[in-house]
C-alpha cells in the first residue's frame, strides 16, 4: 500500500510540475526587439518629461513605426510603441504611463501574442487588466482601445503571424464590447482590409507592418472621427 501511495504521489508531483511549467511558458513575456534595446527604451520613456496634456500611443512595432506627433500635427503625442512587445510587456510598463496622467491613451497590442500562441482568453484578460489599471490609477485619462489590424500572408515574411485570422476576429469582437465610461473602441480593422479580409497590400511592406500610406489611412481615420480633439 505504501509503495502504491508513493507511486501515486510521484505521479501527482510530476503532473503538477509539468502543468506549472506549461502555464509559466504561456504567461512568460519578453520582447523580440534587439537585446538590451527593450530595457533601454523603457528607461528612456520613464525619463521623458510628462504632462497631463500628453496623448500616448501604446503598443508594439506597428505603433512604433511612425512619428505620431508629426503625422497628426500634435506636439503632445507620445509614441510608446516597442517592437516585438506583447500584452505582458505593456502591463509591465503601464505604471509609468499611469503615473503621467495623460489625457488620452491609444492602445493597439496583441498580434505578437497571437503569433506566440498565447491563448485568446489570456490576451483578453490582459486587455481588461490594462483598462482596469488605467481607470483606477488615472481616472481622467480617456482610453481608446483599437481593434487588431489584419495581416496578409501573401508576403510570406512573418509566418508565425499568418493563418490565425480566427484569433484576430475573436479578439476584435471582444474588444468591441469594451465601450464604457472613459473607454472608446476604435475599430481600425475594417479600414485596412481588402475584399478577402486581408491587410491591404498597398498599405504594408511585409504583410504585418504598415508603410507611410498605411499610417496615413490611420491618421485620416482618427482625424475624421474626432477622437483626437474630443474632451
Automatic annotation (TrEMBL):
PANTHER family: SGNH HYDROLASE-TYPE ESTERASE DOMAIN-CONTAINING PROTEIN, THIOESTERASE 1/PROTEASE 1/LYSOPHOSPHOLIPASE L1. It holds the Pfam family Lipase_GDSL_2. This is Sialate O-acetylesterase. Residues 57-217 form the SGNH hydrolase-type esterase domain. SUPFAM superfamilies: SGNH hydrolase. GO terms for molecular function: phosphatidylcholine lysophospholipase activity. Residues 1-24 form the signal peptide. The lineage of its organism: Bacteria, Pseudomonadati, Bacteroidota, Sphingobacteriia, Sphingobacteriales. Gene3D superfamilies: SGNH hydrolase. Keywords: Signal. The keyword Ribosomal protein does not apply.
